[in-house]
Amino acid sequence: MNANTMPPESQQTIEDFLTFVEQERNDRDRDRELWDNLRTLEESLAQTEDKPAKIAKAIKAWCKQFNIVLNREQLADYRINMAKKGKSIPKPTPGEQPDRVYNKALIVDTVKAAREERSP
After folding, report:
1. Is 60 exposed, middle or buried (0-12, 13-18, 19+ CB in 10 A)?
2. Is residue 3 part of a domain?
C-alpha cells in the first residue's frame, strides 16, 4: 500500500465516528452513559498504533462493545447538513497524507473534548 493512501473502509469508519461524536455533542438529550464510555475508547486508542487501519479497528471494537451502530447513510446526511452550516469533519484533501488528518492525536482530542464538555 502506498504511504499516501488509506484503506477506504478505515477512512470511512474514522469519518463516520468523528461525525457520530459531533452529532452526539449536539444532542443534549443523549444518555450520559455514552460520554462515560468514551474514556474506554481514549484508553484503547492510547495503546493503539498511530495508523488509520489500527485506529479504525479500535473504534469498531469500542462501538461493538457499547452497542453503537455507525449508520453511514444517516451520518452522511448529517455531514451534508454540517456543510450547509459551514462546518465540516476533517478529511484529507487530494494528495494529502491521510494520517496527518486521521491520526490518533486528532481522534483522542475530539473524544476527550466531547467527553469533558458533557462532564458535570
Report:
1. middle
2. no
